[in-house]
Every structure is written in C-alpha cells, then in structure tokens.
Amino acid sequence: MLTRREAAQALIAATAIATLGKTALAADKVVKIAMDLSLTGADSEGAVRVRNGIMMAIDGSNEGNGIPGVRLETLALDDGTPTAGQYDPAQAATNARKMVSDPDVVAAVGPQMSGAGKAMAPILSMADLATITPSSTNPDITDPKFAQQFRPGGKPIYFRTVTTDAYQGPNMANFYADVLHVKSVYILDDSGAYGVGMADAFQKQAEKKGMKVAGRDRLDPKGADYTAILTKIKSLNPDAIYYGGVGQAGVKLAKQSFDIVPNVIKGGGDGVYGPVMLSSVGFPAANGWYATIASPHTVADNKAQSFVDAYFRKYNKAADDYTITAYDATLVVIDAIRRVAASGKPITRSAVRDAIQTAKVSTIQGVVQFDENGDLKDRTVSVFQIKQDTSARPDDVSRQYHYIGVAPQA
Amino acid sequence: MNGAAAAAVSVLTRPIARIPEATRRRIGLLLLVAFALGFPIFHPNDADVDSMANAAAYATLALGLNIVVGFAGLLDLGYAAFFAIGAYTYGILTAFQLQPEWSSFWEPFQYLGLVAKMPGETGDTSVVHFTLSFWLALPLAAGLAAFFGILFGAPTLRLRGDYLAIVTLGFGEIVPIVVRNWDGLTNGAAGLNGVAAPKLFGWSFGVDARPYYYVAIAMVALLVFVSIRLRDSRIGRAWMAIREDEIAAGAMGVDRTKFKLMAFAIGAAFGGMTGVFYVAKLQTATPEMFGFPVSVMILVMIVFGGIGSVWGVVLGAFVLQLLQSWWLQDLTEWLHALGRLVGNMWLQHVDLVPSIELIFGFILVGMMLFRRQGLIPAVRQQAALSLDQQHAEVRRGGFTDLKLHGLGGDTRTGAAALEIKGVTVKFGGLTALNNVDLVVPNGGVVAVIGPNGSGKSTLFNVITGLVEAQEGSIRFHGEELMGLPDYKILEKGVARTFQNLRLFPNLTVMENALIGQHARLKTGALAAILRPPGTMAEEKQAREWAMEIFSIFGNRLVPRVGQMVAGLSYANRRRIEIARALASRPRILLLDEPTAGMNPAETLELAEQVKSLNQLGLTVLLIEHKLDVVTTLADTVFVLDHGEVIAHGRPDEVRRDEEVLRAYLGRNAQAAAASVA
Amino acid sequence: MTTYDLLLQQLINGLSLGAMYSLLALGFTLVYGIMELINFSHFNVFMVGSFIALFVLQSFGLSGQDVILTGLPLVGVLVAAFIVTMLFCGGIGMAIERVLLRPLRNVKGPAAMITTIGISYILFNVILLTVGADSKNFPNPLPAIRYHIGGAVLDFRVILIWVIALLLMGTLYLFVQRSRIGKAMRATAQDVEAARMMGVEVDKVILMAFFLGSALAGASGLIFGLYYNFTSFIIGFTAGLRAFTAAVLGGIGNVPGAMVGGVLIGLIEAMASQFIAAAWADVIIFSILVLVLVFRPAGLFGRIAPSKS
Fold first, then answer.
1. ipTM score of complex
2. Is there a contact between B142 and B85 (Cβ–Cβ < 8 Å)?
C-alpha cells in the first residue's frame, strides 16, 4: 500500500507539526492553503507526488516558523471521481466552491489538469481567491482573449509555475530545427488536453521553421499497442518523432519505438521528464529521449539535487518535475502570505492575490515572477536528454537526465 | 428485528398507517418539495449546494436511462453519448468555438438573439458569435439527442439484449472519440472555452450554485413527472410489455420497432437536456467527461436505486453522487476526529476518498447479493386478499348478463372469417405445415386437433405472423394477413393465446388486460404526459372494458386486478391470457390449449364461457386435446398430422375417422379399438 | 520499406495483437455460451494476471530488461510463470463464480452483469491502491532474436506468443470437443435444464468454464507483459473491450468464432492505424462491429441461439 503509506506519512508529519504548533504557539493565527489534486484514478500516483511537494513546503514553513504568528494548514481536495474514472471538472468546480466557502482558505495550489482549471477559474475569480497550478499548461485559461470567461472577477487569479503549451512546444520545435537539424518530423499526442496542446503548438512552429511534418496521429493512452503506428512511422522514415503527452502513453511509446524505430530522434515536453520514464521504460530503451522543462537550469545550483534527495529520504520514492513545480508554487504562496502578514494588513484573499501577483521568489526553478495574466515571466525552456548513468539510482531524474541547453525562443 | 423492536416500530408507525395511502403520499411529496426548495436556505454552503445540483443532474440522467433500461428493458451501456451530444450542442452554440465570417445571412438570427456580431481577429472583418439561449437549447438538445437515440437505436433493433449492450457500448466509445478528434468543432481535448452561463430576463446565473440547483431540481421534478405519466400510460405499458415478453407484446399489438425507438429517443432526450444543463453550469466541457465510466455509473445508480422505479433511481443517483462529492470527505474527517478522540492512529490517518471506487465495488456486489431490487423497489408488496375474495364460486352455464359490445365485429354471419389456403412452412429440412387448407366460418367455432408435433401451434404462429410461410395465403374477412407484422394482424382483429402462457409476469392483471387493448387505444407520448380530457376518458373506458372482460370469469379475476400475474394460480393465468386477448376486441379468438392444466370442473366452466362468447358473435379457432371440450364447443374439427390436414368435419364424424385414430393412437391401438368394436 | 514489406509487417503486428485478443475473447465466450452473462470482471482478471506474472518473474530474480535467459532456464521460468499465473487467475475466476455469481444464477435481468462490474471495480482498485497508478516495467527474459523477411521484422517474442496462443487455444478446443467435461459444457450451453436432467453437474461445468476462461485471461496477461514489457492497472479496459468485441464479432458463445474474431480485430486495428489513423481505430472497430451485427445479428460464425427465457 505504497500510495496509502505515503499519504499517511505526509499526514503524520502534518498532524505532528500541527499538534506541536497548537501546544507551542496557541495564539498563532491559522490560515489554510487549499489544494485540488486528482487523487482518485489514473493520475493518482502523480497527484501524490504533487501533494508531497506541497506538504514539504508547508511543513518547512511551519517547522521553521516561516511566517511569524501564522500557522499554515491545508484543505486537501480530490477532483477525481469514480463517475469520471479520473479528474472530473464538475468535482473540480465543487471543490473550488469548497475552497471559497472555507473562510480560512486564503490561496490554493492546483489543479493538475487544465480541464479542471477551466471549471474552477470563474468560481475562484469571483471570490478573488488565487491559485497557482504546478502542471496545467493550457494557454486559454490565462489568455486575455478569454478574460471575461476565466476571470470574470477582473484580476488574474490563475497563476502557474509552469509555462504554457505556447512556449514549450514551439521552443522545442526550434531546438529540433536549429540544433538537431531535423528536416522531417512525425508528431504524436496522447489524446489528453496537455499532450494535444503541446503537439499542436510544436506542429505550428515546426511548419513555420520549414520542417516537413511527415504525419500527425493520436495515441490511446489506455491502449497498449503502438506497433502499428510505429511501423507506419518507420515506413515514412522521418528524422524525428515529437511526442506531446505524459508518461502513461509515453512509457509504451518509448519501449516500442526502441524496437521499431531505434535510430529516430525522439523527444517530448515535461510530460516525459520524470521518474516514470526511467523506471517504467528501463534502459536501454529510455536512452536518447529528449525532454524539456519550462524553467531555467542553473548548473552550478544544486538546489534541485538536494530537494530531490530530501524528497527521496522522506518518501522513499523519486520526485518528478511536478513535485518541484508544486513545491515552488507553495513557496510562492507562503511568501505572499508572509509579506501580507509582515505588512500588518489582515491576511485576506485579495491581499494574498495581490502579493502573489507581485511575487519575486527564489525557488528551485529560479526566480518566479508572474506577468499581468498570471503566467511565468521567465519563459526559458531547458532541454534535457536521457543518458544512462549506471552509478546513480535508475529513477534518479536529476542524474539520468542530462542538461543539454536552452531551447531557442520562438 | 426482534419482537420488542418490531412492536415499538409498529406502535410508532400505527398512527401513520392510519392515514390513507394517497394522503400519506401527498404529505411525503410535500415534505420532499419543501426540503428541496429550502435546502440552499438552511444549508447555505455553496459547495454542498453545487454537489446537490450535480447529483440532481445525475438523477435526470438516471431517469432517462431508466426509461430505456428500466421500462423498456433495453440494456444500454453507452448512455453518456447522449449526455455528450446535449452538452456539446449548447457548448458549441455559445462558446467561442465556431466563428464563421459575418454576412447578411446572419442578420435575421441576430434579430432573434441567436448570434452576435463580434470583431474578428484581424481588424476590419467581423465574425459570428453564437449566443443560443439556455432555455432554447434545452428543447433543441433534447430533440437532437432524440434523433441520435433513434439513429443509434435503429441498427440494434434486431439484436438480442446482450448484443444490444455491446453496440450501445460501441456508440458510447465512438462519441467521445469523435468529440476529441473533431477539434475544429469542439476544441478537442483542450475543452470548450467560454460556454455561456444561463440568463433569465437579462440576469446571468454566473458562478453562484443556487440558481443552478433550482434549475436542476426543477428538471428532476419535470422528468419524474414525465416518467411517472409515461409509465402509467399506454406508452409505458407497451414498453413494459416489450421488457417482459417481446413475442407476447407483438402478438398483443405493440409495434416493437416503434416503441423501442421511442424509448431510445425519449431516454436520449433526457440525457441531451441534462448535457445542456451540466455544461452551462460548468462553463466548459472536455471529452473525458462522457466516457464509459460515466455510462456505467448511471447504470449503477439505476440498479442501486431500483431498476424501473422512478423514485428509486432518483434516490440512487443522489446517494451515489453525493457520496463521492460530499459525504465521503466529511466522513473521512469525522473518522479522523474519532481517531483523535479515542487515540487510534489508524483512524486518524485513514483516507477514504482514494478508496471510493473500491467502496463502490463493494456496494454494487453487496446490493446484488442482498438487495437486488434496489433501495426503492419498482414492484411493491401486494396486499393479501381477504378470505371472501379468495373464495371462488364455480359458475356453470357460461354467462348471460354481459353484452360485451364490440366483440366479434359487426358482421356476425356471412362468408368465411378466416380462409387458409395451401400454407406450407418449412424449418430447414423439416416441413412443419404442408399445403394446409382450413376455413373458419364467421361466427363459428373451429377446433384443430392432432398429436404433438403435428403443426397445430405452427399454424397459429403463421396466422399471427410469428412464423413466415413459404407458400399459401391467409385471408381474414377477405384481407391477406400473410406478410403483415404481428402487431398489424392483431389490429385486424386476430387475437391469440399461447400454449405455454406468455403473460407479462411482473405486471398486474389489470395492466395485462390494458396492454391487450394497446391497438385499440390512441394515446401518444405527448397525450400520456399531458393527459388531456380525451386521454383520461379513454383510459377510464379501457379500465371499464377490462373489468367487463374480467367479469366473464365471475369473481375469479375481479378481486385480483391489482395483483402481479406471477403470483397467481395456473388456471387464473390461463384466464388472464384469454382476457388479455379479448380485451383487444378481436373478431376472431385463437385459443391454444386453453384448458391445459385445469381440472375437469374448471375445464367445463371455461368451455361454457367460451361458448357464451361465441354466442355473442365471436369467432373462435381452438387447439385442444380434450375431446369433450372439442365436442362441446366446435362446429367443425380439423385434424392435423405431420403438418397435413388428414381429416375435417363435424366432431362426431372426425371421431370415427380411421386415419385420425391411427394418427392419434397408432396402428396397434387402432386394431385393438376395432376388435373391441 | 516497400508497400509489400509494410503490409507484411502490419500483418505480423495485427496477428500478435489478435493472438492476445483471441485468448481473452475465449474467456468471454466460454462463460457467455453457458450462462449468457457478459462477464465484465474478465477485463480485470486479465489485468491481475499480468501483475501475478510480474511478481512470479520478479521472484525468479528477473527485473527490467537486464537478464536474458535461453534454453532450459527460459523454458523452466516460462512454464512456471504460466502455470502459477493461470492457476491463480483460474482460482480468482472460480471464487468469483462460487461466491458472488452462483447466488444470482437464476435471477433474471442484469443483476449478474452488474455484479461483474462491481467485481471489476474491486479488482481494479485493489491493484491501484496497492501497486500504484504508474506503469510498471515488466521483465523480458526472452533473447532478442530477429528474423528479417524482406523489409519486415519478425521478433522471436512474436513467434513465441503465436505458438503459446495456438497451443492454449488448440488445447482448449480439444478439451471442449473431446473431454467428458467439455462435452458437458457444450451440452449445458445448449440447454441447461436438459443437461441437468441428463446427469450433467451444471454447477461443476459452470465453475470449470470460469476456471478455464480466467486461466486463459491470466495467460494473456503474462503474454501481454512479455510482449509489451510493461503492465499497469489500466490495461484491462481497452484490451478487454476489444476482446469482448472480438467475441461478439465471431459470434459470442462460439469458441472458434472467438479465435477468428480476435485475429480480425487485431488486423483491423493494425490496418486502421496504417491507412487511416490510430486516433480513429476504435471508431473503425466499433463501426465494423455494428455493420456486421446489422447484417448478421448473431456474429460472423454464430447461429441465433435459442432464447433461454
């Protein structure tokens, strides 16, 4: 019962600190950070990694008395339902209302999925309750074109510690064209909102760069057999494959493409940056895959490494990119609350939202700042490649993915 | 429950039991309505109100599927497809999705408020923005979903139940895939942007859960009303007849194709309406919201609540939906609090939410093992009959007090009623009927006898359209019956009973007789829902006519009209089948061994009742083994053997016919009989 | 790659896929033939089977793609894995029948089918909550031998899968046709009551059908793992649905029909991905199913079974 155990551990830690805090600092003001994650269904293991990332930041703040006079608690909500079998936008909307109805909630982290985000954003906006998503990348939600829809309350409330599909895909297309000198590419997605968005954005830029798009198809993430489509790709003989999507289909694609088209360049976005791609694909099949993450990589900085190691010590499992973005998002929220508290103003949702808007927080992925729509100001896209390092744990993301460089801006 | 507790309960419920049933129901309904209306006021938690609104939406879906699965008995595993069709109809026609270039073509629509003019991406051009009103979208989506219901239903009509399940499952898979892949229309996996919130007189619902809740509750109320009205009408009875026994339903005049498609269409319409509501509330839609798990969940809600039970499926939907979106989370917190109280670590840290699907699995399996009929069963316990009612007087000499106007048609004399010429039926290599000629004179009683397997029942099946003949003609009052579907043949006035009883076992005696009148009644779906005076009158007359028919059998059926057929004695079920056939006001009645399984007294009683019917002008064609019955009733006897007519004539003539004896008794017996003679 | 090579390669792909669907379809067809029950738990017995196989192979010290076995050790490990997986899954199937479905044997309507949906939920979530949602790497102890036929590649794994599938299906076919209990199964499928009166122990026959069907599901779970080198709690649905479609396409209740149906679905899937798009494969499969059923309501090889109502 690994997921359960992890959950229990996180909760033990949280409760232990909570009770400690209660006795030691009974006069502390309690504010809550809400989270909306897909803890039921197909995405549950990823959701646990995100939740652990959030909890590490919150525990860190409470333990170190990060905000004097304020104790942080969480309101953890699950937007996965048996009715949908995975994340359920209707439940996400209900959860947004739960956050709004709880007067202690001043900010939120989540959701994981853009479909949930679209349902939540109008409700959060009307309550001026800011949320920072660690993983939802659909550009529509923060697009000013849809402001009337997704922020009817006026101010942006949907912030991200990931860049949208509008940057990762196109920048990778530039990298394919300029650095790898790819002439023809076959594009695949995994049917999900994230994957389709990435692949669409990549395709647009690839065509602009004069790459020949040999074809475009869609994988069924619940299916197992991609040999037929890979055989088709083999017959078209493209230089490269670009895959927009997450690990669920990515793992199978990596395994089967290694058998069928071993010599074709293969790459994807941050969906193929994580321990699943390493442990479930295994070597040598995983070798050579390119992946991007939507943040700068500072070689000298070992923050990421020490975080990942600390995570492993605590949960005995590997962290992924979204653990880090969730941790960072929570750091930004905590920083905002601290600044509001320090200014002596009451800690209200609006005040915290305004503080998040003006955040300038040093996190694992660098300094996080938001533009006027809630998107990251820094749109650096870093490219990594998997190369087996036999001296490290096979699922150690920071040692098996090797930094290649920054993808050229689109 | 032990004795003391039972006594306590009965003391508590006795005053309630004293209130008449109808009043009790009215009070219950009133309380329910008061609760539903007051809920957001005394529990002003926006999230919980939202959960209730979602649950209400699932209740309307469950009501829709209940029409298909519960009423008509058609197993549909892809119901979410209609939900999706409704959702995307409204979504596409209000979101920023389709934006054709503006032209004068759109001006009338702009005048009607269906579209708006919007500046395009590039400066000087204008584009169309669809702004379909929520209230208009409801009927529109219902209609479109109904159309797809018919489209998806049509290829499945010939399929048996389980094949139907897989085909509907297939359609349920296809629709979300099409939605995902056709991204120009639906924005694909990314989901719709900017679906408009409903407006009422210029006031937008926005993100407040309460107006949605009230709309959802109103939809549940409407669809409960529609479901109940349909269920208790000619339409609902036809569905249930199909569910209980397709062959008998056809033989009783139910056009199965039409009514199955109607069930698909109405069920789909409910789904389409719900889709509009759901997407308007959520203001986005993604293909994942309409997958197979959704179809299964709606089915589970129906089964959990009580398949076929209108209030049951509503309750089932509410319980299961609220469990996932509201109660389980609260329950987890209570367990944590309990754990802190008693110092139990496991209780403090248990999280039920991720286990919800597991809990669902156990609920399902447990329900099926221990309470299959669901929370509120569709079939209620019947009140027991009093001793007086159970006492049946044997009535001899048929009946003389009934007039039964309309039975047997207008022409009681004259030419042949039924004329069968040269009918041949082959099943593969086996010839079941070979060149059979048979005439039933108008107003006569003709018996068909013959050993088992001689083709008697096949003859009935050919006449009533259940079996196709290769050759020959069957004329009924001059009209050709061959080639007509079974229900048309009943409409012409040919009603039958079955050798092995094909009643609708889970319906009442009255309902069985009312289904018999299906072809004679006119109520359509709309009339069934609105119940105009004409429909009320028709229904009243239908019940009176049924009671008149029941009184043919003295007091054997009359006290039992409200009872389920399945629980009645064999002889009574035979009588009900005859009553059901008579209820259709036939001109000819085909009785297939009507006295089988009856004792001699009951046999004689029935024979005399049939005689009386004949005297009122009803033509009868009879299959019978008991020769005394044949002698009492029949003017003419036809003898079938190996599918051929080997003799016909008056009963006493046929009785002496050598070939008949041989066919019936075999050569040795015939020799023995001869030697005795 | 020439068009000819491409077609040959897709034929190989489709046949491998079809072999798995066929094995899985047999389980549906065996149970349906006798009980007229759509057994949704079959989907996830297959999935559980792949995890049991995973644990068995791991207990032999195999993990990832690092250890390659040949000769006797390979045969020994495979035989042991197949036997354990099939027995375990067969046991699950028997338990499902004996404990949960037998009380519903004579209940009309969808009660039994709903129960199997419930069981499916339970199996699915037991794996999800214990093993986790991420895909798991499945050991591949088979040597990487490849045969080139023109431009097409035939992997040793594929040949092995075909051989094992054919062996299992052939054994099953002979068992159903020749053995005493096989004959009793066919008799029960024709008419439960008549079979009972002829002295067939119907309970035993049904239990046997569940055992065989579930054991084959377990075997296909193992084959799935060996072929794709991964498993996940989610694999049951798509594969199960395709297999079920295959059973219906062939004429549900008909054993050779299920085998042919499985291969057909596999080929359709491969060809649809090649010539149209993988995105539309499901739509094409189901459209073909609907068309077949419209013109042949009992499937390609089925005859209209006598209604048991």
1. 0.90
2. no
